[in-house]
Amino acid sequence: xxxxxxxxxxxxxxxxxxxxxxxxxxxxxxxxxxxxxxxxxxxxxxxxxxxxxxxxxxxxxxxxxxxxxxxxxxxxxxxxxxxxxxxxxxxxxxxxxxxxxxxxxxxxxxxxxxxxxxxxxxxxxxxxxxxxxxxxxxxxxxxxxxxxxxxxxxxxxxxxxxxxxxxxxxxxxxxxxxxxxxxxxxxxxxxxxxxxxxxxxxxxxxxxxxxxxxxxxxxxxxxxxxxxxxxxxxxxxxxxxxxxxxxxxxxxxxxxxxxxxxxxxxxxxxxxxxxxxxxxxxxxxxxxxxxxxxxxxxxxxxxxxxxxxxxxxxxxxxxxxxxx
Length: 324
Ligand code: UDP
Prior knowledge:
Blueprint: E1 4-8, H1 13-24, E2 28-33, E3 52-56, H2 62-69, E4 74-77, H3 84-89, H4 91-112, E5 116-121, H5 147-168, E6 172-177, E7 180-181, H6 192-202, E8 206-209, E9 215-216, E10 219-220, H7 221-232, E11 241-244, E12 250-251, H8 252-263, E13 269-272, H9 274-278, H10 293-299, H11 307-323
Parallel strand pairs: 1-2, 1-4, 2-3, 4-5, 5-6, 6-11, 7-10, 8-13
Antiparallel strand pairs: 9-12
Bound molecules: uridine-5'-diphosphate.
């Protein structure tokens, strides 16, 4: 793998875990993060490293991005507006950051001939449900439903990255993260596991949206980061998209019960209609299960951490935050 890497969004949840692993591997790491959803606390363990160069700025600053990408061998582009609640409340910011930001990153990578790993998302499959392989059709709702703007921005990012690859020969790898969870993930913008864990720890009601029958498959961030590192080292991954997720499914009601149980919480579990949680016209998907045959075939990668371990790690993290 290259010696110097820029991680956009490196102060975020997934980014900070990736930055730690890269520094442990002896890499020089540049981080560009505007701290909109990330935080310097996420980088507390590595802040003093002389191999870490932290730039608190927006990926929309084109001259800064051109200069920074000129100094590195490779870019991992994670910076994006994420979280269902953020997307619904701030659609302009979401669309601008995700589309213009990636345009800028790709333009700068192209100018310098710098290989790019682009973080994409399972959201691009939309309402399509189980055994989602990389070629699966995408099923999108109406543009009246703001949620789908996120999926469309990330799909456009994928199209643009593949276009740079095909037309200009830029080496790009696309990784589609399915629901990734673990320490440092914030529940502020709706993510369900940190939300349930903080509710259970506080003894507050655990808010299950919709019927609770909808399913998700959750992947521990350590497994996710291991997949990203594997792809970065795989020349055959160039020009392709890979699902990164856990095939094991759980309903959101089962998740609420499991969190309550593992915390040992007396919280009650309450069912909240979608329109109360997100406003009228919200659409959710019933299932979103990855087929990970492609990355398994290329790298032999499999998730190793169970749902119990994921919850225990998130609980330990939030207990630590509460203890200061
Ligand atoms: N969810 C919930 N209660 C919450 C937050 C989320 O029941 O307090 C549900 C949400 O409606 C969805 C699932 O949990 O069905 C996962 O939501 P999240 O926002 O974490 O990720 P998504 O998979 O929807 O992008």
